[in-house]
Design brief:
The complex is a heterodimer.
Chain A: E1 2-6, H1 7-20, E2 26-34, E3 38-47, E4 60-62, H2 64-76, E5 80-89, H3 97-102, E6 108-115, E7 118-127, E8 134-142
Chain B: E1 2-5, E2 19-22, H1 27-37, H2 42-45, E3 56-60, E4 63-64, E5 80-85, E6 87-89, E7 97-100, H3 101-120, H4 124-139, H5 146-154, E8 162-165, H6 167-189, H7 193-213, H8 217-227
Parallel strand pairs in B: 1-5
Antiparallel strand pairs in B: 1-2, 3-4, 3-5, 7-8
Helix pairs in contact in B: 3-4, 3-5, 3-7, 4-6, 6-7, 6-8
The chains are: A alpha/beta, B alpha+beta.
Chain lengths: 147, 249
């Protein structure tokens, strides 16, 4: 399993996540999924964190309407909603217990650790078929990635 | 037949189709038809009691059925039904939250500036406004002047200063400040301007003590009340931190 992420989109994602610090931020990844193994991100759509209350420093939720709009956009442009990106402020970029409870199959979960307002590490994950764990997906961030 | 759009995570259970047709006059009937046609989809849509799962949102032509008639919402062949999963997640919860002290300091600075401005311009209404904004900020689990901080941050004039800390004592401190300013406004309204300005000056002094010395008297008060086991006051100071002092990190 490999996720190809163009460098300019990685940069846009980083900016969105850093701006929200210390709160978590999230967004949707549109792209192509050729077979099960290779995915390419073509567009990154930042969305608002709709989690209510003070726990936004470690929780996010996405408005179903935002997902619906992203699905519309993907359908229109021959793409697929392939995943979700979100930040873990001052926390490792590994899926948490809560991420596992809420995890959906198929989607790539791109998690970025943001320390003190600066993104430091990004890793990609996919929920295993048994839903008991996340498997890491290799992440290739490059200018060379063709859209 | 109504067109139903299947979200990507559920497509493997519907023979990888993006959209399928389903019969039925209501959302419930259409979903039941869908589940009968694709049995692998059923456990992802309904729980053991046949109720729609909480993370499954259904939209009819861009409208959430929760705002319509729920599963009894009628559908016709010209309608589009969309199944949309709820997406959530986040980092691991720790015993302490993360509190942005740069946001708190901005708040204190704006409070001090506004109250001094109110005195200079002899504008008691501004005292009341600041007090109400502080009360509103506490009720919203935020600061009175969060918007000012957001603007300064967006302009890259301020950087966050996030510490492991409890937000509750800071909200309590702001709440107490808001109450004192409201009392001050009542004094103005009653014609006791001197008392009004004295109460405002107390808030300025305490905010300045917090801003320039790093001592939050309202927070210390919160921790002392917590020591008395007063209901609603449950937090102890972060490890190694004296009540009301800035936590180490």
């Amino acid at each position: 399993m490999t996720l190809f992420l163009p460098a300019d989109l990685a940069e846009a994602i980083r900016r969105h996540l850093e701006r929200a610090y210390p709160e978590e931020a999230a967004g949707l990844l549109l792209g192509t999924a050729d077979g099960a193994d290779k995915r390419r991100v073509v567009r990154a759509l930042p969305v608002d964190n709709r989690w209510e209350g003070s726990d936004r420093v470690r929780r996010y939720t996405i408005d179903p309407r935002d997902l619906m709009r992203a699905e519309d956009e993907a359908n229109r442009d021959g793409l697929t909603v392939i995943g979700i990106f979100h930040s873990h402020p001052d926390h490792p970029p590994r899926p948490s217990t809560f991420d596992l409870e809420q995890g959906l199959p198929f989607y790539t979960y791109l998690i970025t650790r943001v320390d003190g307002g600066s993104a430091v590490e990004t890793r990609a994950w996919r929920l295993a078929d048994d839903r008991l764990r996340f498997d890491e997906e290799s992440l290739v961030i490059s200018d060379e990635v063709t859209r | 037949m109504t067109v139903v759009r299947i979200p990507t995570p559920l497509r493997p259970y519907a023979e990888n189709q993006k959209e399928v047709s389903a019969g039925g006059d209501t959302v419930a009937a259409a979903l039941e038809h869908l589940a009968a046609r694709f049995p692998a989809l059923r456990p992802h849509l309904f729980d053991g009691d046949g109720r729609l799962r909480s993370y499954v949102n259904v939209f009819v032509n861009d409208q959430d059925i929760r705002g319509l008639q729920g599963e009894a919402t009628p559908v016709s062949p010209t309608d589009r039904l969309m199944i949309v999963p709820s997406i959530a997640g986040g980092g691991e919860p720790g015993p302490l939250s993360r509190v942005d002290h740069a946001a708190l300091r901005t708040n204190q600075a704006v409070i001090i500036g506004s109250l001094i401005g109110a005195y200079v311009a002899d504008a008691p209404w501004l005292v009341l406004l600041v007090g109400l904004l502080m009360l509103r900020g506490s009720a919203r689990r935020s600061t009175a002047f969060a918007a000012v901080y957001a603007a300064l941050r967006n302009a890259s004039l301020l950087r966050p200063d996030v510490l492991s800390d409890h937000p509750e004592p800071h909200r309590f401190a702001q709440f107490v400040g808001g109450i004192v300013l409201t009392a001050s406004a009542v004094a103005f309204a009653a014609g006791a301007a001197t008392i009004g300005w004295i109460l405002s000056a107390v808030v300025v002094a305490l905010a300045a003590l917090n801003l320039f010395v790093g001592v939050c008297v309202g927070c210390a008060l919160y921790y002392w009340l917590a020591r008395l086991h007063l209901p609603g006051f449950s937090k102890s100071p972060p490890p190694g931190t004296r009540p009301g002092r800035r936590p180490a990190g």
